[in-house]
């Protein structure tokens, strides 16, 4: 085990920064207990488990296990949003202004690792969150390695490109992954080492690199960018819910992607920060119809 202490020079909501990395309550790569937040990752040096907690004096204490622990602890400030600049953000709507005031510690953290964010993002394409999270749990629990160190029971490292490339076709089906998402994951796995360069490129250039892979579009690239390099302008256009929520919150009616693009234009280059502040504001859009029902591809 290795340990690092770090004292941020800004208001920090550790849970608020890290929780976007959690893919559902049963995510095998993310846990929270009385000891802090646990997360696992693949790194250039191998798998790692990290536990992150905060002392009453504000100091963040991180402990790491596994071959990639040093790499992870090196990136602790970036993971917790040290490279983010929320102080340059200007709110243009009372709801967003109030949300920013109430959540001053909310920042965009950067994992510095594309692959770990890319697979669950692809799994979330055009399906309900329930379906996607179930598939992520199945793949991680059945084909990935156990978490290094004394991690909570059941924690796994995200499956590596090699591990997913070895999964037989029928096992994808059992995990509830349809052929389109499977093809996208396998295409990404074939060039995974090249895609890590997106972190260094950052911004739109990084998202363009990801979109060169068949099956990775604007939505998926944005979901990765928000987490891998903390991109505050990467809006998840193409999302089933976000335009409606943003529309009702900011203009009092549902929007499509084109309408949301127009409404968010004043927030460029921090449009996704505006979206996140809407999401955490507590605003609830009107409900008019039944929810989209999950499908079980394993029964097809």
Model description:
The chain has helices at 14-18, 69-74, 76-79, 94-102, 114-123, 129-143, 161-165, 169-174, 179-190, 192-195, 197-201, 203-210, 218-228, 242-251, 257-264, 271-279; strands at residues 2-6, 30-33, 36-43, 46-54, 60-65. The chain has 300 residues and is α+β, with helices and mostly antiparallel strands. The chain has a five-stranded antiparallel beta sheet. Helix 5 packs antiparallel against helix 13 (218-228), helix 12 (203-210) crosses helix 13 (218-228) and helix 14 (242-251) crosses helix 15 (257-264). It is globular. The N and C termini lie far apart (46 Å).
Topology of helices and strands:
Elements: E1 2-6, H1 14-18, E2 30-33, E3 36-43, E4 46-54, E5 60-65, H2 69-74, H3 76-79, H4 94-102, H5 114-123, H6 129-143, H7 161-165, H8 169-174, H9 179-190, H10 192-195, H11 197-201, H12 203-210, H13 218-228, H14 242-251, H15 257-264, H16 271-279
Antiparallel strand pairs: 1-5, 2-3, 3-4, 4-5
Helix pairs in contact: 5-9, 5-13, 12-13, 14-15
Q: Look up the CATH topology of the domain at 114-228.
A: Endonuclease III, domain 1
In percent, how helical is the residue content? 40-55%
Span from first to last CA?
Answer: 46 Å
- What's the arrangement of strands in the largest beta sheet? 1-5-4-3-2
Structural class, from secondary structure content? alpha+beta
Round the Cα radius of gyration to an integer and report it: 19 Å
Keywords: DNA damage, DNA repair
InterPro entries: Alkylbase_DNA_Glycosylase/TA, DNA_glycosylase
Organism: Pseudonocardia oroxyli
GO cellular component, one term: cytoplasm
């Amino acid at each position: 085990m290795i340990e690092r202490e770090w004292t941020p020079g800004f208001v920090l909501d550790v849970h608020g920064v890290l929780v976007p990395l959690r893919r559902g309550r049963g995510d095998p790569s993310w846990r929270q207990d009385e000891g802090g937040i646990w997360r696992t990752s693949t790194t250039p040096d191998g798998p790692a488990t990290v536990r992150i907690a905060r002392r009453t004096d504000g100091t963040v204490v991180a402990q790491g296990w596994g071959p990639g622990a040093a790499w992870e602890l090196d990136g602790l400030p970036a993971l917790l949003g040290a490279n983010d600049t929320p102080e340059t953000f200007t709110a243009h709507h009372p709801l967003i202004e109030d949300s920013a005031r109430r959540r001053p510690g909310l920042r965009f953290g950067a994992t510095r690792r594309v692959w770990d964010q890319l697979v669950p993002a692809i799994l979330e394409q055009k399906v309900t969150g329930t379906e996607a999270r179930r598939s992520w749990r199945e793949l991680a629990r059945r084909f990935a390695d156990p978490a290094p160190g004394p991690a909570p029971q059941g924690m796994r490292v995200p499956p590596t490109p090699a591990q997913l490339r070895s999964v037989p076709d029928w096992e994808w089906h059992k995990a509830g992954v349809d052929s389109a998402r499977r093809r996208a994951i396998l295409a990404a796995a074939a060039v995974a080492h090249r895609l890590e360069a997106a972190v260094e490129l950052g911004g739109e250039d990084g998202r363009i690199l990801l979109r060169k892979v068949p099956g990775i579009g604007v939505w998926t690239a944005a979901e990765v960018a928000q987490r891998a390099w903390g991109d505050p302008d990467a809006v998840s256009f193409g999302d089933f819910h976000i335009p409606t929520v943003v529309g009702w919150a900011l203009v009092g009616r549902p929007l499509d992607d084109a309408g949301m693009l127009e409404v968010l234009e004043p927030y460029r280059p921090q449009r996704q920060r505006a979206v996140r502040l809407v999401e955490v504001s507590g605003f609830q859009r009107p409900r008019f119809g039944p929810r989209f029902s999950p499908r079980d591809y394993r029964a097809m």
